[in-house]
Write a structure and sequence with these properties.
7 strands; single chain; Rossmann fold; five-stranded parallel beta sheet; alpha/beta; elongated
Length: 326
Protein backbone atom coordinates (compact mmCIF):
# COMPACT_ATOMS: atom_id res chain seq x y z
CA UNK A 1 0.00 0.00 0.00
CA UNK A 2 1.40 3.41 -0.94
CA UNK A 3 1.93 6.24 1.53
CA UNK A 4 -0.82 8.20 -0.23
CA UNK A 5 -3.30 5.37 0.19
CA UNK A 6 -2.59 5.12 3.92
CA UNK A 7 -3.23 8.80 4.65
CA UNK A 8 -6.05 9.65 7.09
CA UNK A 9 -8.96 11.93 6.26
CA UNK A 10 -7.58 14.72 8.45
CA UNK A 11 -4.11 15.74 9.65
CA UNK A 12 -3.45 18.24 12.44
CA UNK A 13 -0.07 19.97 12.07
CA UNK A 14 0.60 21.50 15.48
CA UNK A 15 3.45 23.49 16.97
CA UNK A 16 4.54 26.99 17.87
CA UNK A 17 3.92 29.87 15.49
CA UNK A 18 6.63 30.96 13.08
CA UNK A 19 8.42 27.66 12.42
CA UNK A 20 7.04 26.89 8.94
CA UNK A 21 3.96 24.71 9.54
CA UNK A 22 1.91 26.51 6.89
CA UNK A 23 4.70 26.01 4.34
CA UNK A 24 4.85 22.35 5.32
CA UNK A 25 1.08 22.01 4.93
CA UNK A 26 1.14 23.64 1.50
CA UNK A 27 4.07 21.50 0.37
CA UNK A 28 2.26 18.36 1.51
CA UNK A 29 -0.88 19.42 -0.36
CA UNK A 30 1.09 20.18 -3.53
CA UNK A 31 2.97 16.86 -3.32
CA UNK A 32 -0.28 14.89 -3.00
CA UNK A 33 -1.76 16.68 -6.01
CA UNK A 34 1.42 16.48 -8.08
CA UNK A 35 1.19 14.26 -11.17
CA UNK A 36 4.89 13.30 -11.18
CA UNK A 37 6.14 13.42 -7.55
CA UNK A 38 9.82 12.79 -6.88
CA UNK A 39 11.04 9.60 -5.20
CA UNK A 40 11.45 11.62 -2.01
CA UNK A 41 7.72 12.40 -2.12
CA UNK A 42 8.26 16.09 -2.88
CA UNK A 43 6.36 17.78 -5.73
CA UNK A 44 8.08 17.91 -9.11
CA UNK A 45 7.34 21.65 -9.52
CA UNK A 46 6.95 21.21 -13.30
CA UNK A 47 3.73 19.31 -14.05
CA UNK A 48 0.40 20.95 -14.83
CA UNK A 49 -0.89 20.28 -11.31
CA UNK A 50 2.13 21.98 -9.74
CA UNK A 51 1.75 24.97 -12.08
CA UNK A 52 -1.91 25.30 -11.08
CA UNK A 53 -1.07 24.96 -7.39
CA UNK A 54 1.66 27.62 -7.46
CA UNK A 55 -0.68 30.11 -9.14
CA UNK A 56 -3.49 29.34 -6.69
CA UNK A 57 -5.74 27.83 -9.35
CA UNK A 58 -5.72 24.10 -8.66
CA UNK A 59 -9.37 22.97 -8.90
CA UNK A 60 -8.94 20.26 -6.24
CA UNK A 61 -7.39 22.47 -3.55
CA UNK A 62 -8.95 24.98 -1.17
CA UNK A 63 -7.25 27.19 1.41
CA UNK A 64 -9.54 28.12 4.29
CA UNK A 65 -8.29 31.17 6.20
CA UNK A 66 -9.84 34.17 7.97
CA UNK A 67 -11.54 36.26 5.31
CA UNK A 68 -10.22 39.63 4.14
CA UNK A 69 -12.75 42.36 4.75
CA UNK A 70 -11.15 45.78 5.28
CA UNK A 71 -8.03 47.86 4.55
CA UNK A 72 -4.51 48.32 5.80
CA UNK A 73 -2.86 44.88 5.96
CA UNK A 74 0.32 43.40 4.44
CA UNK A 75 0.21 40.36 2.18
CA UNK A 76 2.54 37.32 2.19
CA UNK A 77 5.07 39.21 0.05
CA UNK A 78 5.11 42.11 2.59
CA UNK A 79 3.27 44.38 0.14
CA UNK A 80 0.44 46.69 1.24
CA UNK A 81 -3.05 45.50 0.33
CA UNK A 82 -6.45 47.12 0.35
CA UNK A 83 -7.80 44.39 2.60
CA UNK A 84 -7.44 43.56 6.27
CA UNK A 85 -7.50 39.99 7.50
CA UNK A 86 -10.30 39.03 9.84
CA UNK A 87 -9.36 37.13 12.99
CA UNK A 88 -11.91 34.34 12.49
CA UNK A 89 -12.94 31.60 10.08
CA UNK A 90 -16.74 31.71 9.96
CA UNK A 91 -19.40 29.03 9.66
CA UNK A 92 -20.36 30.50 6.27
CA UNK A 93 -16.86 29.83 4.93
CA UNK A 94 -16.99 26.24 6.13
CA UNK A 95 -20.44 25.64 4.66
CA UNK A 96 -19.24 27.00 1.31
CA UNK A 97 -16.99 23.95 1.09
CA UNK A 98 -20.04 21.65 0.73
CA UNK A 99 -20.12 21.68 -3.07
CA UNK A 100 -16.35 21.32 -3.29
CA UNK A 101 -16.15 18.19 -1.12
CA UNK A 102 -19.17 16.49 -2.64
CA UNK A 103 -18.39 16.91 -6.34
CA UNK A 104 -16.15 14.63 -8.37
CA UNK A 105 -12.53 15.74 -8.43
CA UNK A 106 -11.34 17.45 -11.59
CA UNK A 107 -8.23 15.31 -11.94
CA UNK A 108 -9.75 12.02 -10.73
CA UNK A 109 -7.49 12.11 -7.69
CA UNK A 110 -7.56 13.58 -4.22
CA UNK A 111 -9.12 16.84 -3.09
CA UNK A 112 -7.41 18.77 -0.27
CA UNK A 113 -8.59 21.49 2.12
CA UNK A 114 -5.93 23.37 4.10
CA UNK A 115 -7.28 25.18 7.19
CA UNK A 116 -5.00 27.87 8.67
CA UNK A 117 -4.91 28.68 11.50
CA UNK A 118 -7.38 26.02 12.60
CA UNK A 119 -7.98 27.69 15.98
CA UNK A 120 -9.39 30.71 14.12
CA UNK A 121 -12.62 28.78 13.55
CA UNK A 122 -15.36 30.00 15.85
CA UNK A 123 -17.50 27.39 17.61
CA UNK A 124 -20.13 27.26 14.88
CA UNK A 125 -17.50 26.93 12.16
CA UNK A 126 -15.71 24.16 14.06
CA UNK A 127 -18.97 22.25 14.56
CA UNK A 128 -19.81 22.61 10.87
CA UNK A 129 -16.39 21.22 9.94
CA UNK A 130 -16.83 18.40 12.46
CA UNK A 131 -19.86 17.13 10.55
CA UNK A 132 -17.68 16.66 7.47
CA UNK A 133 -14.84 15.11 9.45
CA UNK A 134 -17.24 12.58 10.99
CA UNK A 135 -18.47 11.44 7.56
CA UNK A 136 -15.63 12.40 5.20
CA UNK A 137 -16.21 12.11 1.46
CA UNK A 138 -13.87 9.68 -0.32
CA UNK A 139 -10.48 10.92 -1.54
CA UNK A 140 -10.70 14.04 0.64
CA UNK A 141 -7.94 15.20 2.97
CA UNK A 142 -8.19 18.02 5.50
CA UNK A 143 -4.90 19.54 6.68
CA UNK A 144 -5.41 21.64 9.80
CA UNK A 145 -2.49 23.90 10.75
CA UNK A 146 -2.62 25.07 14.36
CA UNK A 147 -0.38 27.31 16.46
CA UNK A 148 -2.56 26.79 19.57
CA UNK A 149 -4.12 23.35 19.18
CA UNK A 150 -5.55 23.48 22.74
CA UNK A 151 -8.06 26.05 21.47
CA UNK A 152 -9.55 23.57 19.00
CA UNK A 153 -12.65 21.64 19.98
CA UNK A 154 -11.60 18.27 21.48
CA UNK A 155 -14.01 16.57 19.07
CA UNK A 156 -12.20 18.14 16.10
CA UNK A 157 -8.78 17.14 17.45
CA UNK A 158 -9.97 13.57 18.00
CA UNK A 159 -10.84 13.24 14.30
CA UNK A 160 -7.33 14.16 13.16
CA UNK A 161 -4.00 12.38 13.02
CA UNK A 162 -1.73 14.66 15.03
CA UNK A 163 1.70 15.62 13.72
CA UNK A 164 3.84 17.79 16.01
CA UNK A 165 6.27 20.13 14.25
CA UNK A 166 9.33 20.87 16.42
CA UNK A 167 11.22 24.16 16.13
CA UNK A 168 14.65 24.03 14.48
CA UNK A 169 17.74 24.09 16.68
CA UNK A 170 19.10 27.56 17.44
CA UNK A 171 22.19 27.38 15.23
CA UNK A 172 20.17 26.23 12.21
CA UNK A 173 17.67 29.04 12.77
CA UNK A 174 20.41 31.66 13.15
CA UNK A 175 22.15 30.46 9.99
CA UNK A 176 18.89 30.71 8.02
CA UNK A 177 18.13 34.20 9.35
CA UNK A 178 21.57 35.44 8.37
CA UNK A 179 21.05 34.02 4.88
CA UNK A 180 17.89 36.15 4.72
CA UNK A 181 19.93 39.27 5.49
CA UNK A 182 18.85 39.75 9.12
CA UNK A 183 21.59 41.79 10.79
CA UNK A 184 20.76 41.20 14.46
CA UNK A 185 19.69 37.58 14.10
CA UNK A 186 20.45 36.66 17.74
CA UNK A 187 18.20 39.37 19.15
CA UNK A 188 15.34 38.77 16.72
CA UNK A 189 15.41 35.01 17.28
CA UNK A 190 15.32 35.52 21.05
CA UNK A 191 12.39 37.92 20.75
CA UNK A 192 10.49 35.35 18.68
CA UNK A 193 10.98 32.53 21.18
CA UNK A 194 13.24 30.71 18.68
CA UNK A 195 10.73 30.77 15.80
CA UNK A 196 12.74 31.77 12.69
CA UNK A 197 9.85 32.86 10.44
CA UNK A 198 8.49 35.04 13.23
CA UNK A 199 12.01 36.38 13.85
CA UNK A 200 12.27 37.38 10.18
CA UNK A 201 9.11 39.45 10.52
CA UNK A 202 10.31 41.01 13.77
CA UNK A 203 13.55 42.13 12.12
CA UNK A 204 11.76 45.00 10.35
CA UNK A 205 13.47 48.25 11.33
CA UNK A 206 10.24 50.11 12.09
CA UNK A 207 9.05 47.32 14.40
CA UNK A 208 12.34 47.29 16.31
CA UNK A 209 12.29 51.07 16.75
CA UNK A 210 8.79 51.01 18.24
CA UNK A 211 9.67 48.10 20.50
CA UNK A 212 12.83 49.82 21.67
CA UNK A 213 11.03 53.04 22.60
CA UNK A 214 8.59 51.17 24.82
CA UNK A 215 11.20 48.94 26.48
CA UNK A 216 13.46 51.91 27.21
CA UNK A 217 10.72 53.33 29.44
CA UNK A 218 10.01 49.99 31.10
CA UNK A 219 13.69 49.46 31.86
CA UNK A 220 13.97 52.88 33.52
CA UNK A 221 10.70 53.55 35.40
CA UNK A 222 12.03 56.94 36.61
CA UNK A 223 11.31 58.15 33.05
CA UNK A 224 7.89 56.54 32.82
CA UNK A 225 4.64 58.47 32.44
CA UNK A 226 2.01 55.66 32.32
CA UNK A 227 -0.69 57.75 30.64
CA UNK A 228 1.69 59.24 28.08
CA UNK A 229 3.07 55.78 27.25
CA UNK A 230 -0.46 54.41 26.82
CA UNK A 231 -1.20 57.28 24.42
CA UNK A 232 2.03 56.56 22.54
CA UNK A 233 1.07 52.88 22.18
CA UNK A 234 -2.60 53.44 21.38
CA UNK A 235 -2.16 53.27 17.61
CA UNK A 236 0.10 50.23 17.76
CA UNK A 237 -1.15 46.67 17.57
CA UNK A 238 -2.28 45.76 21.08
CA UNK A 239 -0.87 42.24 20.59
CA UNK A 240 2.57 43.76 19.88
CA UNK A 241 2.59 45.84 23.03
CA UNK A 242 1.42 42.93 25.16
CA UNK A 243 4.16 40.75 23.65
CA UNK A 244 6.80 43.32 24.60
CA UNK A 245 5.52 43.80 28.15
CA UNK A 246 5.01 40.06 28.73
CA UNK A 247 8.54 39.31 27.56
CA UNK A 248 9.90 42.15 29.68
CA UNK A 249 8.10 40.79 32.78
CA UNK A 250 9.29 37.23 32.07
CA UNK A 251 12.91 38.34 31.71
CA UNK A 252 12.71 40.53 34.79
CA UNK A 253 11.53 37.54 36.84
CA UNK A 254 14.12 35.29 35.19
CA UNK A 255 16.96 37.67 36.09
CA UNK A 256 15.74 37.82 39.66
CA UNK A 257 15.48 34.05 40.05
CA UNK A 258 18.11 32.62 37.69
CA UNK A 259 20.31 35.57 36.60
CA UNK A 260 19.49 34.98 32.92
CA UNK A 261 17.07 36.14 30.23
CA UNK A 262 15.17 34.43 27.45
CA UNK A 263 13.95 37.24 25.20
CA UNK A 264 16.74 39.84 25.49
CA UNK A 265 20.27 38.90 24.53
CA UNK A 266 21.95 41.77 26.41
CA UNK A 267 19.63 43.22 29.07
CA UNK A 268 20.54 46.81 30.02
CA UNK A 269 22.06 47.63 33.41
CA UNK A 270 18.86 49.39 34.52
CA UNK A 271 16.83 46.22 33.95
CA UNK A 272 19.27 44.10 35.97
CA UNK A 273 19.14 46.58 38.84
CA UNK A 274 15.37 46.67 38.74
CA UNK A 275 15.15 42.86 38.72
CA UNK A 276 17.13 42.74 41.97
CA UNK A 277 14.90 45.32 43.61
CA UNK A 278 11.37 44.51 42.47
CA UNK A 279 9.04 42.45 44.68
CA UNK A 280 8.73 39.04 43.00
CA UNK A 281 5.23 38.38 44.34
CA UNK A 282 4.01 41.70 42.95
CA UNK A 283 5.71 40.95 39.65
CA UNK A 284 3.88 37.61 39.40
CA UNK A 285 0.60 39.41 40.08
CA UNK A 286 1.44 41.83 37.27
CA UNK A 287 2.00 38.86 34.95
CA UNK A 288 -1.50 37.61 35.82
CA UNK A 289 -2.87 41.02 34.86
CA UNK A 290 -1.05 40.73 31.54
CA UNK A 291 -2.66 37.34 30.93
CA UNK A 292 -6.09 38.87 31.55
CA UNK A 293 -5.31 41.68 29.11
CA UNK A 294 -4.18 39.11 26.52
CA UNK A 295 -7.66 37.60 26.54
CA UNK A 296 -8.98 40.99 25.41
CA UNK A 297 -6.88 41.07 22.22
CA UNK A 298 -9.56 39.34 20.13
CA UNK A 299 -12.34 41.63 21.36
CA UNK A 300 -13.16 45.22 20.28
CA UNK A 301 -12.26 46.91 23.57
CA UNK A 302 -10.72 50.34 24.12
CA UNK A 303 -7.02 49.65 23.70
CA UNK A 304 -5.98 52.83 25.43
CA UNK A 305 -7.89 52.00 28.60
CA UNK A 306 -6.32 48.53 28.66
CA UNK A 307 -2.84 50.01 28.25
CA UNK A 308 -3.38 52.77 30.79
CA UNK A 309 -4.37 50.22 33.43
CA UNK A 310 -1.36 48.03 32.63
CA UNK A 311 1.17 50.85 32.76
CA UNK A 312 -0.36 52.28 35.95
CA UNK A 313 -0.03 48.83 37.54
CA UNK A 314 3.54 48.67 36.30
CA UNK A 315 4.23 52.07 37.83
CA UNK A 316 2.91 50.85 41.19
CA UNK A 317 5.06 47.72 40.91
CA UNK A 318 8.30 49.57 40.20
CA UNK A 319 7.69 52.48 42.55
CA UNK A 320 6.89 50.36 45.59
CA UNK A 321 9.22 50.64 48.56
CA UNK A 322 10.85 47.28 47.73
CA UNK A 323 11.58 48.36 44.15
CA UNK A 324 13.51 51.51 44.97
CA UNK A 325 16.94 51.26 43.39
CA UNK A 326 19.87 53.42 42.50
Amino acid sequence: MSAKASLPNAILLQGRSGIGKLHLGRTLAQALLCEMPLESGEPCEHCGACDWFKTGNHPDFRLLEPAADAVGEIDEQNKPTDKKASKFITVTQVRELADFVNLTTHRNGRRIILVHPAEAMNVNAANALLKTLEEPPPDTLFILVSHHFQRLLPTVRSRCRKVSAPPPDRETALSWLREQGVNDAEACLSQSGCSPLAALQLSAEDYQLKRGRVLDQLDDPTRLDPLALAEQCEKLELAWVLDWVEQWAYDLASIGMAAQTRYRVDPPVQMIRLAKAVNLIELLRFQQELLAARRAVQHPLNNRLVLEQLFLSYGQLTNSQDATYV
